[in-house]
Each structure stands twice: as structure tokens, then as C-alpha cells.
Amino acid sequence: MCMLLGHYCLNRQALLLQYSVLNTVRPALARTLILRTEGHSRGILAGFAHINTGTDRVTQPRGTGIRHYGVRMEPGKGLIFRQLFESISSTYTYLLGDKETKEAVLIDPVLETVDRDVKLIEELGLTLKVAANTHCHADHITGTGLLKKKLYGCKSAISRLSGANADILFSEGDHITFGKHALTVRETPGHTDGCVTFVLGDQSMAFTGDALLIRGCGRTDFQQGCSKRLYESVHQKIFTLPGHCLLYPAHDYKGQTVSTVEEEKKFNPRLTKTLDEFVHIMANLNLPKPAQIDIAVPANLVCGLHEV
């Protein structure tokens, strides 16, 4: 046992040295090395590993200006996962696929990046079953309508409570299946009436839309927003997930890509407060009006059914 432990420590020291050298020259290659090497012994981490702290938080190389998309592929589970970014509205789009059946789901697609998404889906040999939105977005037009034109058989989906039209209108407890995998719908209103969080079947990943952001949350000053409902939604539907559950938001404005339930319960500067304190904070954000709201909301109310 001691010999094995010593062998592991030496290997890890060598790995860290390799990472340090490679990270100076080619950051992406360094992260790939970490994923491939450590994945066999303790599971492949979400996104790019932050080996200094052992957390699943992603740190970008300073000064590069590069936004990578995250990768989380666990051969044992047969899951394909990609995290994609749209820079104008700082929106994350998530692609999940089944390695065996090649069926896939796309969460929160953006109109301007549909061609990028279609290219990736085709390169991976996937068949897109559903393009689902976590809510009726105010800061961008959904890509579901154009995806349906480009990928035969794809259906649009959104919450029944959103007031929007789509091929599929889901409610609390519904499932979006792709191969042997499924996303369970948890209604998390407060930012809008129709906000939902999609939870992977084993509760290892959750896609929180605008309800819960990394160290923040969605605003509540328009589109049926209600601070009290949002606070209750997060505490009852998201913070009750396992602490290790990885949280993927619909947006981030600081270069962060992933968090966990445990992290947000400890460090979220708004949602760690009392309800009254939270309501006060949300009432005094004084945020500007979303730039695309006047065109985005009408288009998204006919989610995936409008002419593009």
C-alpha cells in the first residue's frame, strides 16, 4: 500500500511539472493532459481541471482572451457533453449526447451561433432530438427555430408556464430523454414565471438557466420577476441537490463556467442571505434594460415556431 501511494505521489508530481511547463506554452494541451491522465483514477472532471485546489471550478489563462468550451465525457456513463459560449449576450449553450444511440439535446441555443452548433453536432455524429430553453430569454433570440430548419426531426421545448409556444411544453417532473440518459425538469420561477432547471438523471449536473448564476442570480425587475419566488425556488429546488452536483448557468459575465451546489450554498453573496436581505438586494440592483429585450421576447414567445 505504501509503495502504491509513493508511486502515485511521484506520478502526480511529474504530472504537475508537465502541466506547469505545458501551461506556459500551450494551455489547452496542458489541460488535456490533466484530463486524460487523472481521468482513469478519479473520474474526468467537468470542464478544465483546476489542479491547484482540486475543485471543479474552471480558471481561464490570464491575458489570453480565449474562451474554451468545457468538456465532460465519462466513458462509463456514455455521456457526451459540450459547453459553448456566445459572446454578445454572454450566453452558454449546452450539448448533451448519448454515446451509443447518438441522440442529443441542446440547451439554450442562440440564433447567431446556430451554424457553429450544427457543425459540432454533425462532427460528433449526433442526432438532435430536442432544443430546449430554460426560460423565455430577454437578451437574445433563441436558435430553436433555425435549428429545426437545419436539423430534420429536431423539436423545440420550453416550460408550459412561460407563456411561449413550442413543439413540447414541459412541466415539473417531466423528462427529456436522449438515449439512456434523461434530464428532469424542476420548475424554478422568480426570474420569470417559466424558468426551469434541468437535472441530469444521476443528479451530477444541473442546468440552472438564469435562476442561479455563479455567485449570483437572475434579475427580478421585469418579465414576471419576483425576488421571493426566486429565493424559494433556488433553496427548494437547486440547493436540495447533492453538494457535489455541478451547476451550469445560462450566462456568466466574468469568465466562470461551472460551480457546485456546495459552493453556491457557501459563497453566493445574495442567496446566502436571509429572504428579507435578498429581497432588499434585488430591489436595489439598478441594472440597465437588456439591449435586445424588445425584439428577443416577442420572438421567443413563439419559441422555435417563428419564421427565421
TrEMBL record:
Which cofactors is this protein said to need? Fe(2+)
Q: Which UniProt keywords apply?
A: Acetylation, Dioxygenase, Iron, Metal-binding, Mitochondrion, Oxidoreductase, Transit peptide
The enzyme class is oxidoreductase
The answer to keyword Acetylation applying to this record is: yes
Q: Which InterPro entries match?
A: Metallo-B-lactamas, Mito_Persulfide_Diox, POD-like_MBL-fold, RibonucZ/Hydroxyglut_hydro
Primary residence: mitochondrion
**GO MF term list:** metal ion binding; sulfur dioxygenase activity
According to the entry, every stretch annotated as the Metallo-beta-lactamase domain falls at: 90-251
EC id: 1.13.11.18
**Leader peptide range in chain numbering:** none
Cellular localisation: Mitochondrion
GO BP terms, alphabetized: glutathione metabolic process; hydrogen sulfide metabolic process
Q: Report which reactions are catalysed by this protein.
A: S-sulfanylglutathione + O2 + H2O = sulfite + glutathione + 2 H(+)
One Pfam family of this protein, by short name? Lactamase_B
GO CC terms in record: mitochondrion
Oligomer status and interactors: Homodimer. Monomer. Interacts with TST. May interact with RELA.
* Family note: Belongs to the metallo-beta-lactamase superfamily. Glyoxalase II family.
Protein name, per record: Persulfide dioxygenase ETHE1, mitochondrial
